[in-house]
Amino acid sequence: MDRREQGAGGLPGIGELAARHGVKWSEHGPGVLPAWIADMDFPVARPIRDALAAAVERSDLGYPPGQDHAAVREAFSDRARQRYGLDIPPDRVVLTTDVLQGLYQSVLTLTAPGDGVLVQTPIYPPFLAAVAETGRRLVEHPLVPGTGPGGGYGIDMEGLEAVCRTDHPRALLLCNPHNPTGRSFTEPELVALAELACRHDLVVVADEIHADVVLEGPGHRSIGGLDPEVGERTVTLNSTSKAFSIAGAACAVAAFGSARLADRFASVPDHARGAVSGLGLLATLAAWRDGDPWLVATLERLRVNRDVVVTAVADRMPGVVGTVQQATYLAWLDCRAAGLGDDPAAFFLERAGVALSPGPSFGVPGRGFARLNFATTPEVLAGILDRMAEALAARSPG
Ligand SMILES: Cc1ncc(COP(=O)(O)O)c(C=O)c1O
Question: Which of the chain's ends, N or C, has fewer CB atoms near its CB within 10 Å?
Answer without folding.
Answer: C
